Amino acid sequence: MLELKLLRSFVLLAEELHFGRAAERLHIVQPALTQQIQSLERQIGTQLLNRTRGRISLTDAGVLVLAEARKTLEQAARTETIGRLAGRGEVGRLEVGFVGSAGLSALMPAVLRDFRQAHPGVDLNLVEMAVGPQLAAIAAGDVDVGFIRLPPLSLPGGVAVLPLRPEGLVVALPAGHPLAQLPAVPVAGLAREPMVLHHRAAAAELRSLIDELCARHGFAPQVVQSVPQISLTIRLVAAGLGVSLMPETIASMAVEGVVYRPLADDDIHYTLALAHRAQDAAPAVRAFVALAGALAEP
């Protein structure tokens, strides 16, 4: 394996075509430079310089080696720069998971915007995933950070969670529904209402929270349709298929024929949070987590 030091000395000598001047630029004595060039020629197995009457010139092999040496030194410099930047979290790639409702919050877009401005060399790859698969992917190292909802049904070992912003649940109602005339809807008022809710596979934590909420008020939700997507849930409510319970962030989605009302008599939280590997030392991950925490502060 050729040493970069030898290549660097050869390139400078090829530029100067004078041992004394090249040695001066390298801040070494001339005999040391002579030894380096001889060592390089031995390793390559061919003569790189013509030495005649005190003058030197490149052999045909020397011309070819010079071009490759310059490329090698440039690549080495790029590698060093990239390594230094990566060590500071300024370049690289982050796999960012998120649940659908997090993408509708004001916080997640703000975190992505500010992180990209502060770390333009870090590519953010966004992947929408349910909470459970997200946490498993983070634990396995396939996802770096993830916007999830608390409380999770389970938390894998080695995964830490940073609570960001608590949210309540709201009731989505068809605009002409009698409950839409109330400023806030009592939970018991939903006991006989047909409900359009997320699939358990897509939002197990939300469905569990809704089940617990309804059970505290003495009934089980009457689910007439399970839906994999937030947007379809709201459209089905607008069509009159039923009512729905969802994070209050969703109320920012104005859909004709749908109104949102807070719950009147239950203080329940479906908190937006950021999950990451607890011992992840990657500077970009640490910077992302710190930024999310700072932006979440009131």
UniProtKB/TrEMBL annotation:
What keywords would UniProt list here? DNA-binding, Transcription, Transcription regulation
Query: Coiled coil located at which positions?
Result: none
DNA-binding in keyword set: yes
Q: Where is the HTH lysR-type domain?
A: 2-59
Gene Ontology cellular component terms for the protein in this record: protein-DNA complex
Which GO MF terms does the UniProt record name? DNA binding; DNA-binding transcription factor activity
* Pfam families for this protein: HTH_1 (PF00126), LysR_substrate (PF03466)
Taxonomically, the superkingdom here is Bacteria
Q: Which family does it belong to?
A: Belongs to the LysR transcriptional regulatory family.
Name under which the protein is recorded: LysR family transcriptional regulator
Q: Which organism is it from?
A: Nitrospirillum amazonense
